[in-house]
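Sorry to interrupt, but I need a hand with the structure work. Could you write out one complete protein record for me, on any chain you like? Could you add the entry underneath, on a fresh line?
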Amino acid sequence: MASKIEAIMAINANAEVTVTNNVIDWLDTTPISNSDIEAKIVELDIAEANEKIAKATAKASGNTKLLDLGLSQAEATALTGYVPPSEV
């Protein structure tokens, strides 16, 4: 899960803030509403989840392509390190 600091910096990369015990101290920066920060946290979490899914899909797709070229699963795993979920 993204932190408040990560969300704030994603909204305003120049923000100067500290967060202590979930309390935001805005140092020379226009405050960002809590609802905007929480929405950005959700957005960042979704983006991270989508990135993980895309990487897993690319690994599985690459593995399938190697198998289609005639490599055995052992050979494909030796080349890429990818182990299909059914073999874990």
The helical segments are 4-11, 34-68, 73-80. Strands lie at 17-20, 23-26. The mean pLDDT is 95. The two ends are 26 Å apart (CA to CA).
